[in-house]
Amino acid sequence: MNLDELFSSASPSVVLAIDIPAAIADDIEKASVYFSPDIERLSVNADRRGVTIVARPGADTETVLAKAHRAISSMVRAARDIPITVHYERENGKPIARRVNEELIQRRWMFEHADGQVSLAGAALKLLTTLDARLAEAYRAAFNAVDQMYPAMVSPNLLHRVGYFSSHPNAASFVCHMVEDFDELEQFRAANGGAVFSAPAAGSVTAPQRCLNPAACFPCYERLQGQIIDPAPLVLTWSGRVFRYESRNMRGLERLWEFNVRELVFIGSEAFTLAARQTMLKLLDELAREWDLACRVESATDAFFPTVYGPQSFWQRVKDVKYEFRLPIEPGENGKERTLAAGSINMHGPFFGEAFGIRLPDGEIASTACVGWGLERLVFALFSQHGFDPETWPNALRGIFS
Amino acid sequence: MAMSEEEIYAGLLNVFRETFGPSVTEISAQTTSRDVKGWDSFNHLNLILALESRFQVAFPNEFLKTMTNVGDIVQQIKTLTSAAR
Fold this sequence. Notes:
The complex is a heterodimer.
Chain A: H1 3-9, E1 13-17, H2 25-31, E2 39-44, E3 50-55, H3 61-76, E4 86-90, H4 100-106, E5 110-114, E6 117-120, H5 122-143, E7 146-147, E8 153-154, H6 156-161, H7 164-167, E9 174-175, H8 182-191, E10 210-212, H9 218-223, E11 234-243, E12 258-268, H10 270-290, E13 295-299, H11 306-319, E14 322-329, E15 338-349, H12 351-356, E16 367-374, H13 375-386, H14 395-398
Parallel strand pairs in A: 7-11
Antiparallel strand pairs in A: 1-3, 2-3, 4-13, 5-6, 8-10, 9-10, 11-12, 12-16, 13-14, 14-15, 15-16
Helix pairs in contact in A: 3-11, 5-13
Chain B: H1 5-20, H2 41-55, H3 61-66, H4 70-84
């Protein structure tokens, strides 16, 4: 290969000049995986006067720059620096373990099937089921929560109704099936008689019939549609399978496409949901002590799609409707300290009550709120904080090693 | 001289109609987001930006976090415009 060939096959790097507010620099880097398939990597420059984009070899850099500019401009527009409020903080003074994913894989407690999909075994699985059972038990005791079960697939209409496609189109996962046509089915069957998988032709599969549920609580509002909650309030809990497509951001147990969530939903008056949030913070403190968990609860926003990022995250910040449970984990490649959002409390106000006609006995629209724990992330954070020696684990969790 | 409440309400109604449409015919101190069709999480920022532009003020973060109704907005605009003059 001569020098010209080498140069043309290298990934071109370009700089897009645009001022980036400090508060949204991380969010821009995270969202950049959805800007263009021709972007290999995007990073905000140290002076925040622009971003550096590494494009894939052969990419049309003008097109890439234009897409990145449109997306980033949307995110930057009207970005306001609203300080983050810390609602709870606990430290455990322990050193953070490194290479936790690799260690879990080496011990055969974790297996990566594909990007964003893992299976667990051994102590990692035991920890996940122990945490889930403990949370369920705590929710029953503290809130009189009633057990539920919901399917992993939801109707696209449900997601449309709750505005999911408007706010997170990038994270949706669709399910389709083969058309009910003998010839198409036979062609697909015959094509897969060999050693290599052959994908069905575009016309052989239906338009999306279902979606994989991207937020544990959605199906419960559909189930309560048109109902009067009597007696009120009502508190529900379940363990649900959740799916969020995260593109190149998927990594180990930290960021999965498919994961388990222990969910808790409050349905009642607005005053009830606000009081429930306070009770949840007290319960979190109890659990953090029991699990010797370093944890910080702070105001947060969802990872909205760039074009709605500004208005939606502004609303979440000023209304303080989202609290995230952030747990310290191993530092990033640049040595920067990191925390992982393993759970959150989300105040919905009357949004779902109005959308699904859910009322209280006095005729008022019900307010709702939910608490979700990403169980794989909680498992990852606990191994990060307590390591792999059973002696360094708190008594309440040491049994996972037996 | 600070703006009168009447002037502020007249300006507010214009901004509300521009932001949420002509169906907004009246607002009062007690009006909240629940009372105005379209005053949702997406349009809240548009309203704030339009108000800041119309009244030439910058709402402080603390106010943005605590405001609950139109009466709060009127009082804040009154305070900010009187301080600026």
